[in-house]
Amino acid sequence: MKLIKDKKFLQNIAHYIDLTSTIGGGVIQPRVNMVKRKKEAVLQVLLPGVSAEQCQVILDKNQLTVMALHQSEQHPAGQIPLFHQNFLLPPFTDFTRLRVVHEGHELRVHIPYLAQGPRVLEIEQQ
Fold first, then answer.
1. Alpha-carbon distance 28 to 47, whole Å?
2. Tens-place pLDDT, residues 10-28
3. Whole-angstrom Cα distance, residue 75 to residue 85?
4. CB 15 within 8 A of CB 49
5. What kind and span of H or E run contains 81?
6. Mind telling me which Gene3D superfamilies this protein's record contains (predicted)?
């Protein structure tokens, strides 16, 4: 068995190790919560020990990918994924106003809804 000598890596990864799940071969996921509000939904991802620089949020059409990566000081070219999860956003999402906030140990994605109400469509005459 090869020992890991990067102490900073061990300190960061220690938050994600759960002995009972690791023995059973399981994978630990951070706590994820979706709070629905009147004008928006907020996706909350609890990431203890993970800085904002380690987080990445990618929007591709209506799929939101949230991930956290660890870069080893010994191997700067390689990154180790700490967390990776995809979320499908509803069609009534205002994609132009999405915003991401990292505060403390939490990453929050604010997902605003489109303006509600009927829309009168213009009739073109040919």
1. 12
2. 666 665 554 334 444 444 5
3. 24
4. yes
5. strand 79-88
6. 2.60.40.790
